[in-house]
Amino acid sequence: MSAPFRLEGGGRIDRTRTLHFTFDGKPYAGFAGDTLASALLANGVHLVGRSFKYHRPRGIVAAGSDEPNALVSVGSGPRFTPNLRATQVELHDGLVAQSQNHWPSVNFDLGALNDLFSPLFPAGFYYKTFMWPKSAWKRFYEPKIRAMAGLGHAPTLPDPDSYAQRYAHCDALIIGAGPAGIAAALAAEAHGARVILCDEEAELGGSLLAERKGIIEGKDASAWLADAVAKLRQSPKVRWLSRTTAFGYFPHNMLGLAERMTDHLAAPADGRPRERLWQVRAKEVVLATGALERPLVFPDNDRPGIMLAGAARQYLTRYAVKPGSRAVVATAHDEAYRAALELAAASVEIAAIVDIRQDMPGPWAARARAAGLRVLPSTTLCATSGRHRVSRVEIAPCGSDGKIGARSRLDCDLVLMCGGFTPTIHLFSQARGKLRFAEKLNAFLPDGGAENLRCAGACRGIFGLESAIADGVAAGEAAARDAVGGRVEAVHAPVPLSEDGGGGRLEPLPNHRSPHRVKAFVDFQNDVTAKDVKLAVREGFRSIEHIKRYTTTGMATDQGKTSNMNALGIAASALDKPLPTVGLTTFRMPYTPVTFGAFAGSARGELFDPVRVTSTHEWAKVKGAVFEDVGQWKRARYFPVKGEDMQRAVARECQAVRQSVGLFDGSTLGKIEIVGPDAAEFMNRIYVNPWTKLEPGRCRYGVMLREDGSILDDGVVGRLAADRFHVTTTTGGAVQVLNHMEDFLQTEWSGLDCWLTSTTEQWAVIAVQGPESRKVLERLVEDIDLSSAAMPHMSVRQGHICGVPTRLFRVSFTGELGFEINVPADYGRAIWEAVFDAGFSRRITPYGTEAMHVMRAEKGYIIVGQDTDGTVTADDVGLSWAIGKAKKDFVGKRSLARPAMTDADRKQLVGLLPENPELVLEEGAQIVADRQSAIGQKMIGRKMMGEKMIGHVTSSYFSVALGRGIALAMVAGGRRRMGETLCVPMPEGVIKAVVTNPVFLDPEGKRLDA
Amino acid sequence: MLLIDCPFCGKRPELEFRYGGEAHIARPDDPSEFGDKAWGQFLYGRSNQRGMHAERWRHVHGCGRFFNALRDTTNDRFAATYKIGEERPALPEAQGAVEA
Amino acid sequence: MPDLGQARRGVLGGVDPSSGTGMLAVLPPLSRLIFRGRISTIGRVAAAFGVEPAMEPCRASVSGERAALWLGPDEWLLLARESEAPDLIEKLTVALAPLSFSLVDVSHRQVGLKVSGEHAALLLSAGCPLDLDRQAFPIGMCTRTLLQKTEIVLWRIAETAFHLEVARSFAPYAWGFLEQAERDL
Amino acid sequence: MQRFSALALIRHAFTGHKTWRPQWRSPEPKPRYDAVIIGGGGHGLATAYYLATEFGIANVAVLEKGWIGGGNTGRNTTIIRSNYLFDESAALYDHAVKLWEGLSQALNYNVMFSQRGVMMLAHNVHDQQSLKRHVHANRLNGVDNEWLSAPAAKAFCPPLNIEASMRYPVIGAALQRRGGVARHDAVAWGYARAADALGVDIIENCAVTAIRRGVGGAVEAVETTRGAIETRKVGVVAAGNTSTVMAMADLRMPLESYPLQALVSEPVKPIFPCVVMSNTIHAYISQSDKGELVIGAGTDAYVSYTQRGALHVPMHTLEAICELFPIFRRLRMLRNWGGIVDVTPDRSPIIGKTSVAGLYVNCGWGTGGFKATPGSGHLFAWTLAKDEPHPINAPFRLDRFRDGYLIDEAAAAAVAH
Ligand SMILES: Cc1cc2nc3c(=O)[nH]c(=O)nc-3n(C[C@H](O)[C@H](O)[C@H](O)COP(=O)(O)OP(=O)(O)OC[C@H]3O[C@@H](n4cnc5c(N)ncnc54)[C@H](O)[C@@H]3O)c2cc1C
Ligand SMILES: NC(=O)c1ccc[n+]([C@@H]2O[C@H](COP(=O)([O-])OP(=O)(O)OC[C@H]3O[C@@H](n4cnc5c(N)ncnc54)[C@H](O)[C@@H]3O)[C@@H](O)[C@H]2O)c1
Ligand SMILES: Cc1cc2nc3c(=O)[nH]c(=O)nc-3n(C[C@H](O)[C@H](O)[C@H](O)COP(=O)(O)O)c2cc1C
Ligand SMILES: [Zn+2]
Fold first, then answer.
1. Is the same domain home to D290 and D190?
2. What distance in Å separates the CA atoms of residue A650 and residue A848, rounded to the nearest whole number?
3. What is the mean pLDDT of chain C?
4. Would you kindly state where each structural domain of chain C is located, as residue ranges?
């Protein structure tokens, strides 16, 4: 299968490897080294899609990542990917691609009706209409607008590919591997720098890949390139990355690179990541990102077959594709002549070179004429025609006054345009570098003020090949010098800027028609025309940022690479202001779109966030435990047997603990060991409690506040020795509490001699709770007297259990006699099983967090974070007894004296008993005092006047021990309301409940002291 | 991601640090002597400086130390880092200047 | 009463160290002590422990099977053979009295992993934001840092080998992460 | 004011849209105004509009240092909802939602307010308790909010992953059907156009550099980059820059300004019908009418005025997005940006008088003030006009930070946006 527009020889494609692909279902062939765009052009396909708003036929404009038009969907099934640039999609065998944004087909698209009615859709039309009738917006207008917008379809299946990430560091990161970048990399390497060189293209070489005739350092350009690339590949100090876009420049010389690893392969090796995201910290950066060619703005400049001159040259020389048979070249810049000459040499007929400039100072026009080409200076291109491909243009002489002379027509199937070059300053601007407008170049150039970076080559306005290389050498040397240190001397100076770029234009080409009647496109992808920009200015949008947002110019997926400067030129003249004072919009990452998957990397499934488990996790799993997420931890919530639901399992677990003995894994509690002669003093300051008099071997329940007076955390603290405390925190609070303590210790009380060590993970914690717990443990503990006399409630002992060292606490969060065994974590599982075995005859029962919650609620013990939120003080939850009254100060004390903290109407913790004992209130349910209005609350969703929510249910369970539903609640002035009946208005009706003391079970604590 | 010069460990990526808010807000020796207004300012009043900002960082995933830093909040460049207890370093005019 | 003194079960007990390409290994249990105190105490630690703890930030000193890793200006991680912790605590406590300091046994708090092989640094760079080049992170350097979503202590023990200390409950994550990253070498 | 309508569009189409007039004028500042608003964001412009419409004070200038709407108004993820926990907040935000419902018509500007529903996901028991607390409180406050099971959440938002094997499975959600999104730019422009038509001067490229005070400390004038302007009433609505402006009157504010980032994907055909927020794993997402997915990322940890942030912040968000919506993993980020959000210690705004006579402040909206724009403007206009707060904004006074009466939505449930 030979493609009709493929040249016989030349190009960088591999003609030995034919690749088959389909576009819109039709089969085609190309060669290895082709992009989808070059392969389509080789097959004579120019119409590749429909535009965003007017659904106009669109073709291929550019040859690289600046392509605004040729967006296609690639792949199928779970690998379907929308909105890819055909110019960047590398061909592989079996590639399936589709055009986008049309119905029913790209050739016949009903959406094109929009084009007919386009006078109704100027910039910002949607702000002016669709307001009546009001309800139609949601039901009619908005869905219609949404369906029209949006280009490609989103994938509908989960992505099967994986994505990788890597950090990297280097002395010099060089972005862009054109002549300037390659020269910089060679120079930096030669001066001892660690170099990373990246380029978004598949091959290193940049503009050299399309260079036919250039001579560098006496060598043929392609030979120089091959040598240079070989040298770079061999050097151990250079990492070269192709297909790698530097997409973002972040503070302190951190850059994001996106490497595409498998999309170009027909069958990626299994498990190989599709893309890799690099986060590079570079000592120095060299931007050698080149320059982008600008389209010209003229009527109907968007037809398929109209493309950038440089792009046509690339198709010809790099891919050996003739983009057409007969071309009209429209230009305001010398560079188009090179394209014309090379195309002519490849036997593309050049109908004319239409140059808007009056005089062409460089040698190019003469060369073209010498080659027999028709050069028309002072000529404009004022119309085009051709439905699915350009077939004819109208040209006319045009003086410097903008007057149009007699028009004539030229038939053609290709129009090349060149409006000049825009240096690729995106990354420089992202780095917050300052720009300067170079009048002669019609371009903004980097002008200092950024990070540790330098620019080289075309992105700095140095356009000649030799000078770009010299500039690269100088930049590479200087980067090495600055990164590696004083040892290196830079030899070469940066190339002085000649500001001779060979012309260019930032205004539309003049034409004979009323400007309000023509569509001369500025932003192809978003269908923004010159008249849209002017309309925005007319409507009072004066800032370029407003113009951008009102017209959406530069907001498409190409971010205005080809359009921003033209839009600016048009805006400046409409505003009648010098162009530099109008300025550019803000450059942002990413330079080209980057896959979400690359940002997310390996963080998926199990690796999304660490799964933290305790040493008994596997045991619990085998027992069929149901787990809940508490922060990153997995905790067993309950242990159902024989098909029990949660309620049944929890009831059984609670009963076991209350009647006999239960086993609970408390290992996730935070633990901190506080050691040193000043440990007690530190504790005094950080907790509300007094600690001085706590004897070694005894425990105390501690509460700590934030400096604003609210409860930060709580937990039992054991004093192991005069100078050693074993502190526990909540599961979620562990990290925060340690940070809070370190903060005060390091910054406020650095004179205190004590130190903190996190021991959360050192200890497995096994709670053995219930009246029989002592009997179970007695069989296992060798050197600790467990009797109540020797080891009363709230004490701690060190000894051994089954030969394993332990810190044994006699504490209880259930209200029963209970112990918490701490053993080094690797022994957790063995000791747990030993206790389980020892308790077998007593029907020892493992219980989970849910039963734990029920039992602690029966005792009125709070859970920080559930019964408290960040607004609650110790007194609010009835913990003022814990406060060391004699202490002059502790963290948070002063705040408790503020008016709001002493307000009699503060919410206070109370118990709540539903009148109907069967009922379990819903956690989070609100409470009102006024019965009358509460009854009215049956009306859902309508505000009832008069009632006021006075509190809410924080914890609520069915208590088997009490045979009824119980709840804890925070209620305004709650402690005053003991015995009052309050109302809990639910959608289904009002529930009445009585306020009680929050301790429901064993208020005297007899069971604890058993 | 900022690169932060820990006074102990040297330049490290921001990920290893935890921001600690404005620096040099001294906790009074005896808070009970502070009136509500002064205490409210101590708790919540912040310079929120646009320009050179004295702030605290903790090298939490490194040496664990709190330290102070001067950073220009208009461009995120650090002018200095210094240990707790050390004086805020004086900066040359140009560096210390506050951008409006 | 059973004697379970030998019934240790590491958190990565189930991991097959021969999985992967052999770059990852779980290290055997160790004695780990966190020593915190003022710098003036360090001389006596050196004498009792037999290793001179480094005063230079982020450096480990090694002698025989013992090592002292600088973690902060008042914090060192002391490593020794598995069974030694109780004796060491006793010895150090005696040697340091009556100075003020803190010595806490954290042997079970963390797990040792070894990452080795020609591409060890590259593998770690999948999740560690530090420059692991030989010059920037020489043999003997150690520091707390991050491995993607978990904190680690990273210690270069050879040109191509690193010792990682990972908090116990994060070790399966660290292992899983590194295994996944190995596929991208 | 030229009326906007379909008919007007057709009429102008015949004349090539040549006769549209500026939506707001570009006047030179006058030497004095009855009131000066500092900050041309949505809140400042709305304040001016309501001063003119509701309180008959039209001799007002809005001073904007850059271009109107260029602050957080122009860079937010546009989530609008009122299902806040506390009575004070619910009243404040629902006041705004009610105004949103007629805003396009009131302003004769289509702000594309789209009540497509805001769904907040619960991933664990704690989330569920907290969201249910909201649902119940909202119901009693007349704010719609309902609890959905996980399958019901998926039915409402088909791309949502509710598989139990997820690291943090979705166990349910709270849905406010009246919540939604609006076109951020249109809000600024619509208010500007309507205020301008009533005589308000909107002065862009005019930064306030000093606040002049007379005897007794009362406000007398403001100095700007375009000269001094006399006035007795100054309303500061400068969002991220509030501390800087208030420092001009020697006030130290309970504010910190952080970078907050957001991003959009490439545009795709309609795939995402509502707004989904997950506070637990940090993801906020909706799809705009243009087709791009609009995604809110987190704040950077430190005070900064750079309007940008670190890469790891959006990375973290996209991890969550890809977990919740695995079909979006192959979509691509089109653009990422940052704003400067002014955050109060209790995450609730400050709207009211200050200790300086004639100086009023409206700030502290942090990560979530776009939704309040109409209500905030209305209440602030009231406060400026009457020199006393409206009952709805009375609790949001500045001196709550002195006596401790915080309205701590953050502590209660830490939900951003
Ligand atoms: C990324 C991001 C996402 C967000 N997402 C949401 C969301 O989903 N939902 C939501 O409700 N909210 C959201 N918010 C918050 C919301 O954007 C803001 O709360 C809201 O827009 C604030 O409006 P404003 O008018 O007060 O401030 P701005 O729009 O910031 O206006 C303040 C104006 O004051 C001007 N100014 C400052 N100083 C001076 C001076 N000295 N002189 C003159 N002018 C001055 C500024 O230039 C600016 O234009 C988000 C914010 C961000 C940054
Ligand atoms: N005469 C003119 O006016 C003119 C105009 C344009 C270019 N040129 C040519 O430009 C050359 C200058 O060479 P140069 O090296 O400066 O530019 P170049 O165009 O040869 O190379 C730039 C390279 O940077 C890459 N790149 C750009 N942004 C990137 C990013 N974000 N991430 C990764 N890669 C990125 C591009 O893919 C390209 O390969 C000369 O050879 C000259 O012929 C001349
Ligand atoms: C809701 C919303 C949608 C946006 N959609 C787009 C978009 O489609 N294309 C685009 O380039 N930018 C889009 N932006 C981002 C803006 O271009 C811009 O980044 C943002 O307003 C911040 O301004 P700045 O980047 O100029 O500082 C969007 C912004 C918002 C708030
Ligand atoms: Zn450090």
1. no
2. 8
3. 94
4. 21-184
Spatial contact of A858 and A674, defined as CB atoms under 8 Å apart = no
Nearest to A494 by CA among A521, A459, A462, A449: A462
Which one has a higher pLDDT value, D134 or A944?
D134
Contacts of B65 in chain C (CB under 8 A): 72-73
Q: Å from A865 to nearest chain C CA?
A: 23
Cβ-Cβ contacts under 8 Å, A924 against chain D: 129-136
Distance from the A283 Cα atom to the nearest Cα atom in chain B, whole angstroms: 11
Residue A148 pLDDT > 50: yes
pLDDT at A942 over 70: no
Provide the 3-class DSSP secondary structure of residue D202. Answer: strand
Superfamily per CATH, domain A670-758: Aminomethyltransferase beta-barrel domains (3.30.70.1400)
End-to-end alpha carbon distance in chain D? 34
Architecture of domain B1-25+49-87: 2-Layer Sandwich (3.30)
Q: pLDDT tens, D130-147?
A: 999 999 999 999 999 999
ipTM surpassing 0.95, yes or no? yes
Per DSSP, the residues of C40-96 read GGHHHHHHHHSS----STTBEEEETTEEEEEEETTEEEEEEEGGGHHHHHHHHHHHH
Chain A residue numbers touching D412 (CB-CB < 8 A): 869-871
- What CATH superfamily classification does A903-1008 receive? Aminomethyltransferase beta-barrel domains (2.40.30.110)
Q: Taking the complete model, does pTM exceed 0.90, yes or no?
A: yes
Amino acid at C78: L
pLDDT of residue C17: 56
Chains contacting A (3 or more CB pairs within 8 Å): B, C, D
What CATH code is carried by the domain that includes residue D242?
3.50.50.60
Domain limits for position D136: 115-179+256-343
Summary mean pLDDT of chain A: 94
Cβ within 8 Å of residue A577, ≥6 positions away: none
Q: Is A586 near ligand 3, meaning CB less than 6 Å away?
A: yes
Residues D325 and D212 in one domain: no
Q: Which helix (H) or strand (E) holds A365?
A: helix A364-370
Is residue D65 a part of any domain in this protein?
Answer: yes
- pLDDT band at residue B91 under the 50/70/90 scheme: confident
CA angle A113, A119, A120 (to 5 degrees): 80
A494, pLDDT greater than 60:
yes
* Cis before A590 (ω within 30): yes
Architecture of domain A617-667+762-857: 2-Layer Sandwich (3.30)
Strands (DSSP E) along A759-813, which ranges? 763-769, 795-801, 804-810
Chain segment D339-357, per-residue pLDDT in tens: 999 999 999 999 999 999 9
Cβ D306–B73 below 8 Å, yes or no?
Answer: yes
Distance from CA of D99 to the nearest CA of A (A): 14
Q: What is the CB neighbour count within 10 angstroms for residue A267?
A: 9
CATH at residue D136: 3.30.9.10
A558-580 average pLDDT score: 97
Residue D391's nearest CA partner among D374, D408, D403, D379 is: D379
Q: Which of D302, D305, D312 sits opposite B55 (nearest CB)?
A: D302
Residue D167 CB–ligand 3 contact under 6 Å: no
- Which fold would CATH assign to domain C21-184? Gyrase A; domain 2 (3.30.1360)
Determine the pLDDT at residue A65: 97
∠ CA A888-A892-A893, nearest 5°, is 35
**pLDDT mean over A857-865:** 95
Span A915-933, average pLDDT: 89
Same domain, D366 and D269: no
Kindly list the domain boundaries of chain B, sorted by start residue. Answer: 1-25+49-87
Same fold, A163-291+423-484 and A670-758: no
Tell the CATH superfamily of the A306-418 domain.
FAD/NAD(P)-binding domain (3.50.50.60)
